[in-house]
Amino acid sequence: MISPDLLLMGGSAAVSAFTLWRWRRLDGGTTPAVAEETAGVPVELGPAVSIVTDSAQLAVMWPALGLGSWETGFPTITAATLTEAGMLVEVQILGGQSLQHWANDATREVLAAYFAVPEVRVTSPHPGFVHLELRTVDTLAESVPVTSLLAYGVDLEAVPVGVTEDHDVWRLRVMYSHILIAGATNSGKGSVLWSIVNGLGPAIKAGLVDILLGDPKGGMEFGAGEDRLWTDFQWTATGIITMLTSAEAEMQERAARFKAAGIRKFTPSADEPLKVVIIDEYAALSAFATREQVTEGLRLIGLLLTQGRAVGYSVIVAIQDPSKDNMPNRQLFSTRIGLRFDESGQTSMVHGKEAADRGSRCHMISEATPGVAYVGQDGTKDFRRVRAFWVSDTDIDRIVDTYSPALPDLSPQADYSGFDPDDLGDEPTPVAA
Ligand SMILES: Nc1ncnc2c1ncn2[C@@H]1O[C@H](COP(=O)(O)OP(=O)(O)OP(=O)(O)O)[C@@H](O)[C@H]1O
Ligand SMILES: [Mg+2]
């Protein structure tokens, strides 16, 4: 029997269940019945709690899962804590085992089946230990409206775009970064894009960020910002290629100027704003563009991706099908957001071959939670599960109204108060007698 003192249960209901057990044992009483042990624990965690608190059951479970045996010894559960999402079980693993033994798909699935929970995630906080997260509650099940973060200022390297699974703000680096957003139809790509625009809003208004938007799906989704929020807005093949061509040329010109002036790091200003090139569903272009136009567009996007970051050009592309043919430069995006996919193969296309073992399960995201995604970032191995803000049509109108830069003042600047519209200037000026 593992010591109940090792169980650090959070949540008052759980604490009472385990305190009761400890009290009885300290009192010299008998081991309580399972029903008493699990009283107050959420019903869906009942089987798991009864297993982790019973060394006899654990001695059967570890060999059954191939994670321990009477010969090699058993892993040790050092703590179990009720969390908002379920239960966290901390385990000291056996010598010779690694995270890989525990985190692979097959082991996680049998652990989930054994504990009778929908999902078990495995991470390693320190060498020699693993955390088993038994998840029974989806903390991202409720959508979060975009308006809740309006008061935040803008850090272009940490733009608020949603919430994380741990109720943190999900922030995206837009400056010095490129972002790929991939997901099936209706998975929420539009809400990620609009959440980014909302987060950038005050900087757009201040003239520090220009958005160049290509919408090959016909201009419907982003048309609300035409001639107001976007510096350039194109939806035809020729228009999009022309926009990318001039963006690339201006980027080269800016790079040459920076080099000549010895500027190493881009800082946005009203004269030299951050240029954010957004393309929603580049692949849709192939429906009406020539093959040459599609290839040329990809070449230009490739140049912006490889050379734009340091000089203030960021690229954000949303795509439905993340295959190599559609987006050959996937690895050049430093942030890759995977929304819901239909197949696990698509998760790997966005997040790499071992994505599932490292915690990205885009293909398991429910259709009922659009906007939920796994985010991978260069320089970090793990994936974060997040949900973009929900941006309604009313929110879109508000974003456009609030953040569109002021239009140039074309009203007459001189004093025309004495102007007489009937005076066509053809009357001879009376000559003084
Ligand atoms: N973050 C979110 N929270 C709640 N609901 C959302 C969220 N994102 C999207 N939705 C809902 O899902 C629907 C589809 O979202 P969206 O248009 O953003 O998907 P999409 O991936 O851009 O689809 P498509 O591929 O057709 O362009 C929206 O109409 C909206 O009702
Ligand atoms: Mg869309």
From TrEMBL:
Extract the ranges annotated as region (Disordered): 410-433
Keywords, A to Z, come to: ATP-binding, Nucleotide-binding
InterPro entries in UniProt: FtsK/SpoIIIE/SftA, FtsK_dom, P-loop_NTPase
Q: Which GO terms describe its molecular function?
A: ATP binding; DNA binding
- Hydrolase: is it a keyword of this entry? no
Q: Which residues form the signal peptide?
A: none
State the source organism's domain of life: Bacteria
Specify whether Nucleotide-binding is a keyword of the entry: yes
Q: Which residues form the FtsK domain?
A: 158-348
Sites where the protein binds ATP: 183-190
Q: Which Pfam families match?
A: FtsK_SpoIIIE (PF01580)
In Swiss-Prot or TrEMBL terms, this protein is called FtsK domain-containing protein
**Species the sequence originates in:** Nocardia speluncae
